[in-house]
Amino acid sequence: MKTSLVPNISLFVRLVELGSFAAVADEFGYTASAVSKLVSRMEGRLGVKLLHRTTRKLSLTPEGEIFLAHARRIILLEETIEADLSRAVGEPRGHLRVNCGTAFARHKLTRLLPRFLEKYPRITLDVSVCDRRIDPIREQMDVTIRVGDSADSDLVAVRLGTVRRIIAVSPRYCSVHGRPARPEDLRRHACLLLSGFAEQAIWPMRVNGNRMDIEVSGPVASDSADMLLQMAIEGVGIIRLGDFLGEDALAKGALIELFSGEHDDEPKPLTALMLPNRHDIPRVRAFVDFLKAELRQPAARQAAHRDAHSC
After folding, report:
1. Within a 10 A sphere around the Cβ of 244, how many other Cβ atoms?
2. CATH number of 165-266
3. pLDDT tens per residue, range 105-118
4. In angstroms, what CA-CA distances link 147 with 48, 159, 236?
5. Considering the entire predicted model, what is its pTM?
6. Separation CA 214–CA 200 (nearest Å)
7. Could you tell me which of 30, 245, 271 has the C-alpha nearest to residue 136?
8. Backbone dihedral angles phi then psi of residue 203, each to the nearest 5 degrees
9. Nearest partner of 203 among 191, 215, 220, judged by Cα
């Protein structure tokens, strides 16, 4: 009796997408040599060579191209079956692959996931956290969460909310250095900057209806927004950051927002990007709808955070 190809089809597709035995091995929990042997067994079962292997890259043979097209259809059929079964039993189920940045993961997603898993106990999650911009199609992410405009026209985009910039300072800093009264005062204050982005040193303002760009500097720059947030709370300097990073510190009075009426907060969309053949799968839709509901922040609550504390 011939062995079935079905269990290894997903592995083969990911191997083509990632182009590396080692990368697939890490993802599936195998060794690179085990992945290579599984592919060799598939080739032996089919009686054709699927891949050209060299020390630098993998490439598909003509037979491999045919097999890949069928493999992707089988995966799509499997997902369709799962979706239909989920609808039939009225409960989303299955495995979700999610990607987001480190700041969103720490300050938002980590707190939301326990409630999501409690609500949908038949869904499991694989969450990839990184600040580099990945290719959701190549990485086969079900949901990719991004801040800013998306140029991925091949993906289905759902708006989750809006991220705005705020300028904030701690009472400790104010007690030592005073509170800047005008936007121009920021030039002589210690400001904390995100390294690697020259534009982060330019803080945009609106004064008397005119745009004013304030170039700031300070004692600390870092590629970690979380580190800068903690430095600001400790009174090292003034910070400009995404509102969801500073939300808790503002609510507790550890930070106070500055220039809320004059600062150009540069609103950016917070978006969930989905693969076009998966956006209607119940588990994907359940996750995105959950995020939409949870990430709605009433404007009144945000205003209260701004006004509840002062230096």
Report:
1. 20
2. 3.40.190.10
3. 988 999 999 999 99
4. 45, 10, 27
5. 0.64
6. 11
7. 271
8. -105, 115
9. 215
